Every structure is written in C-alpha cells, then in structure tokens.
Fold these 2 entries.
Entry 1:
Amino acid sequence: MKSSAKSIATLLPTPRLLPNESEAEFQSSLQGLLSEFETPSPLNIALVIQLNECLWWIKRHTVDKELLLHESMAVILTRSADFPQSYDNRLVSMPLEGFLAGNASEEDNLWIDDLLEGAKLTVSDLRARGFKSAAKDIKMADDLIHRQYQTMRHLQKSIDTVDFKSRLIKRMDLELADLENKALAIDANPS
Amino acid sequence: MKIKPLLSMPIPPKTHTNRRNAQRSTGPKSGRGKLASSQNSRKHGLNVQVDFESSGVYAHIKRLVSQEVFSSFMAADIATSLLNYRRVMDAYYDAYTRSKPVSNYLWNVNLVEFQSALMELSIGTPATAANVRSSTRLIGRLQRNEHRQGRPVVRRTVDCHKLIRYQRNAISRLSKAIRPA
C-alpha cells in the first residue's frame, strides 16, 4: 500500500517552490497534514499534496497583498517628498519596510518620521491612502486568496469522500469476515 | 375538459438560438483589441485541448486509482482531472514567476531630456526635428504602457488573476469526478 501510495504522488508533476522557499518546510507541512490519516490511500496522498500547495499559495498571495500596500505607501511618500521615482521606489520603500516591521535603524526611523511630517501624514493616514490607491490590486490579491480557499474546500470534500469510501469497504470486509466466522461456527456445531 | 392547444410554431432548437445569439456577440472591435485577443490562448496554453489519455502517466494513475474503491470509468475521469488540475497549477506557477519584467530604463526615462539628447545626436544626420519628435512620442507611449502594467508584484498578481477561472474549472471537474452527484 505504501509503495503504491508513494508512486501516485511521484507520477503527478510535483508542486514547484519559489527559489527563496524551503523544500524541508513544505515537506514538514505536508507530513503534518498526512499525519491526520491512519493509512492514507494513494489518491488521498495526491489530494493532500494539492491541498498543501494551496496553503502555500495563500501564504505567497498574503505576502504580496502586504507588499502591494507597502509599495503604494512608498509611492505616496516619494511623491510628497519630490524624490525621483524608480519602478521599485528603493530609496523610500526599503527604509519604510523596516520602519513598518519595526526593525529599521535609528537613522531610517528618523528619516521616515521626517518624510511623514513633511507630507503632513501619520502612519495610519499613509496606510489609508496607500490602501485607497492600491485598492484595485489588493482586491485582485484577495480574489486569488479566496480562490485558494475555495479550492481547498473542494479538495477537503474529495479527501473525505475517498476516506469514507475506503472506511466503508473496510467495514463491509470486517462484517463479511464476521458473518463467515459465524457461518463456520454453525457448521462446526450442528445442533 | 378543454385541452389547451399547443403552440402553432415549433420551438427552435437550442443550437439555432445559440448560433443566432453568437452573431450578435460583442467581441473586440478595434484593431488593437483584435490583436490583443488573438494572443489570448498563446500566453498560457490552457485553452488548448490536451490528450491525457494517450500518456503513460495517465494509464499508471488510472490503474492505481482503480485499485481503490473506484470503478474503471471513475478512475479514468479522476486520472484525467488530476492531470488537468496539475497542468493548470503549473501554468499558475509560471504566470507568477515569469511575469514580464519591468524595464528600468523605460520606467525612469525623462522624456524632455531624451528629446534634447536625441536632438543633439541628430545634428549632421538626415534626421529631421519631426523624426525626433515622433521617436520621443513612441518612447512616451512605451513608458505609459510600462507604467500601466505596474510594478513587479502588481504584474504577477494580474497574471495569476487571469488564471482564476481555469483553476475554478479544473478543481470543479476533479471534485465532480471523485464525488459524482
């Protein structure tokens, strides 16, 4: 059973990871999902791999959603300070990223504070404006996340169906074996 | 009891109605729109019909699935749907990782400086001022197009968003194959 279970997963093209992602982390998350089954069938393993991939897509799109907002905030700050705009707004976006994450240097913190003061904005104002300006793109990222949740729901129902069918067959086998035993017992002790 | 007479005109078959409506369908009208839509299926190749049944992988998966609690017909449907789902997800990954890169030069080029530099370069050449202006206009158009497509994160989000319907259809097909109504 285990070898056939492995083989269906190897036959299907495996989900690919991004260069900065860890294969070990993906496998550990997959093992975590598989550990919920006693003896997963080959089809269930294939479906759980797809489900794990959906979880990873949700993570990626969530990071992108935050990035879209931060980019938009950086553009607003760049415009207000009249800096030359590059496509990645590196001049502002990198210190701003550190500022928002709370790990920026003292110098960067002061610089961003100055920029905010110059633009007459608070961080919440900047976030609100950034959200408004990138609303269309953020909605797209939300759609992508929502799609992955819907896909996971479909996969979960399919996994349940396969699992239920296997358990039903196992139960019927046991009942059949029980009936056979009973029939043998009747044959052995004819009264 | 009086029976209601049937309609005198026969109801046209559905196909006729579909064909008639298709004549009225609104597709791209402009040359630019037609050119863009003509490239739709070439971007990800998901509109192309794929013959999974003739592949060796399909036969293997079908055999393994039919060893479970599924009939041969259901196993065939599940194998096709699984391969189709993987195909869509691979295209999704490609859309995410291979979105069109941003041209740093086009994004940042200052059109006024570009035009004056081109003007200086054209001195002593057969290029006229009109040529320089039209070249600048072209670069301006390309720059606007570059800005419209957005930054890298926007580009990959937009590219993935185009594949949502393919993913929805693929998972729905797989789900139906495993849990027939």
Entry 2:
Amino acid sequence: MEKLCLEVQDLTKHYDASEFSLDHLNFKVPYGSVMGLIGENGAGKTTTLKLILNLMRRDAGTIKLFGLDNIRDEGAIKQQIGVVFDENHFHELFSPADIAKILRSLYQKWDDNLFQQYLRRFQLPADKPIKTYSRGMKVKLSIASALAHHPKLLLLDEPTSGLDPVVRDEILSIFFDFIQDEEHTILMSSHITGDLEKIADYVTFLHQGRLVFSGVKDDLLDSHGIVKCNASERKRIDPKWIVKQRTGPFGCEILVNNKAAVRHLYPELLVDNASLEEIMLFHVKGEK
Amino acid sequence: MIGLIQKDLLLIKRSMGTTMLILAFLVIVFSASMGASAGMAMIPIAFSILILGTFALDDTAKWDVYVLCTPPAKRRIVLSKYLSSSILIAIGAAFSAIAAVVALLIRSETWSLEVTLTFLASVGLACCMNAVLLPLTYRFGAERSRIIFMVLVFIPTCLAVLLQGQLPAIASVDEATIMNMLALFPVFGILLLFPSYFISKAIYTHKDF
C-alpha cells in the first residue's frame, strides 16, 4: 500500500454568506507524487488548501499530513511544508535579505545557503525591495522562500497564474526538480490545466464544491474522450457512457467516460482524445 | 517568534523611520520652549500607536495568510505583536527621558517630581491605550479600530466637558493620592495588557483567513 503524504476525508465547509459548500471531499496524495487540484474559479480549490493549512475552520472531516492531524500537530507539520500563493504576501518594503532574517527564526531547518542559491538561480537581487520586482520575480521569491527550509510537501495555490509561458515553464521545471526525490510531494491547485498535464501524476477535480474525480491523471485522460456527432447518432449512444454533452448549431459534442468501449461499439463515430481542460469545460458548461 | 518581532520593528524602521526623527526633533523643540513635561508626555504615546501601522501594512500585504502557513501557532503570532508593542513603548519611554533631559538642560532646569510623574503617566497611558487598541484592531482591523478608539475617548471627554458643574461634586482626592496613582499607572497599564492579550488571542484564533 502506498504511503500517504496527505489524506483528506469527508472535508466539509459551508459559507453562510454565499451558500457555497465544500461537500464531503475525499482524496489522498501519496509520497513522491504531484497532485493537481483543478476546477473552475470558485470550485473550492483555495478553500481546500486553506482548510489543509488550518487557515479556516472546517465544519466536518479529517485532514492528515505525514500521518499527523493537521490541527493537533500543526506546528510540527508546518516545519515540513512550503507554501506558494498566487500573489505575493511579503511586505513590499522588504528585500529578500529581510525575508531571510525573518524566516530564519521561524523554521528550524532554514538554510541560508540554499536560499542564496535559489536567489542566484532565479536572478533575484537580494538587497532590492520587493516593490521593484516583476510579478514573475515575486513568484520566484515565494518559491525560494518555500524551498529554503527543506520542506517535504509543497502546497501551491495557482502559482503560475498571470505569468507568461516562459516564466511558467521555468517555474514548472523548478517543481519538477523538487519531486525528483521520492520523499517530496506537491499539491498544486490550478485552473491552467496545461501545466498540470505536464507535471501531475494525480488529479482531483472539483466542481461547485463537489468532488468529480480523484485519481491517476493518465487514467482520466485515457478513459475520457469526446464524440462529435449529430442528434440521431447521439440517441444511439448508451447513456451509461455519457458524462456531459454540448449541443451546437452543427451537432453534438459528448464527453464519454470510456472512449475505448465507445470506439469499439460505435466504430462509425469520431472519438477524439480529451484534454483536462476539455473535461473540465464539459463538466462546468455541459448538459446532462 | 523573534522573527515576527524583527518583522514589525523593521517595518516601522522602513516605513516610519524619517517621520519619527522629525517628531523627535519637534518634541525636543516643543519641550525646550513649553517645558520638559509638555513634550515628553507625547513620545511614549506616539511610539505606542506605531504598532497600528504594522497592522495596516500587514493587511495590505495579506501577511497573515502567509505567516499562518509558517510554524508559529496563532497565540505566538499575537504574543509577538504584544511584545513588539511593549518594545516600542519602552523605546518611546527611553526617547522621552532623553528628550526631557535635553529640554531641561536647554532651559537650565533640574529633573523634578512633576517630570517623573508625567513620564510615568505617559508610559502608563501608552500601555492602557494599546491594551484597548490591540483587541479592537484584531477584531475590526487597523482603520476601524482607530475610529472606534477615538469615539470611545471623544464621547466621554465631551460629556465630561458639557456636564461640568452640573454633576454632584465628587469627594476631592488629595495630592498624595494623585501622586501615588500616577506613580502606579505604568504598573496598571502593564497588568491591563495581560487580559488584553487573552482577548486578542481568542479573537485571532477564531478568525478565518
């Protein structure tokens, strides 16, 4: 049985003001893997991460990191976690040297040399205030700060959001280097599914606070496909294969959950492979 | 936790350092012309309010979201704010004493009981203000807590002025009692910080970020 770095069971959170609910979420992240948390804006990705980090109080459920309870053993857990958000949370008056001074006393395993190495690798000036940094530089500084205390788990909340493709590729390669060690794990939330297709081993798909899918990414991509057909062809397809459909002026597009079976049973129909983005779009905008 | 205190002091140095130097100069000049007590009373209070600036800057950076992902528990994060505020009051008290000495030297006066009592009263008042302001800030944020505090001070003061002479006479307190009260005021202020901390901790612990 795989050793689990993160285990979320029946996680529930209800917001009174917006009537949004994270509804009995269950997923597991094995050690040495990358879990992509995908969903449209407002699906509950950031809420999930905040509940894992105990930034918010959950209504029900349990969360275990490294086998420890995320509330009872919070201090010990957070020594081993690095977190990167989509926006910078360091004071803009501070320089990386100031940030190192602060974080040095917060983390037992803070490594100044490693932090300096990352600053040099990312070409970040150590003595300039953060307000002079571009968005990409701020994200790289967050990553350097997250990695410099030798964490076992990286929690990333849309870290590549708003970045150009060159910087996104650079950042993904940093994460790729991080997980080369089988002891390191990443949980990354993103609505840029292309990034997760490159890096993720597992995917958890949230839609309106509910779990749609959680499992091996390749299984999801291998099983799902898109059938393009007209209305009469659509009626012939067994409903048990149909996940969602979209109807346009020129015909139907149907997301099926077993493309191998559909190809075998209906050889006359065109079944394309589905990307993570397409699967997400069908779930969000498709009809039952 | 030391890192969090360093963070607050560094923020103040970076954002308000020049302002404080100008304030220090003005206080010395004011004290030299109006008397040592007049200027020195302002300094610990001015330093105590600096901690509100760190709350405002933390809100702008959404620093709390980040710091809660680091190992220190919520109670230690709150405690670090109280320690930062206490350090600021101590620094203010030191500057106040220095400003008084400089003003006295300029006016060729000696350190008197009045100066001592003013010093102790201002330190006590600074501690009392923060004991009230910090929980208000945790509950309502930096901007609204300032307004709430001004209302809490302004309304009773206005009422006292308006109703002056119309209220039944309170038994007068003798001078020795007043002097003892002023001398013990810093102790009262420091003691008030303890329940204030527990209130702030409860507010912060129950917040969602």
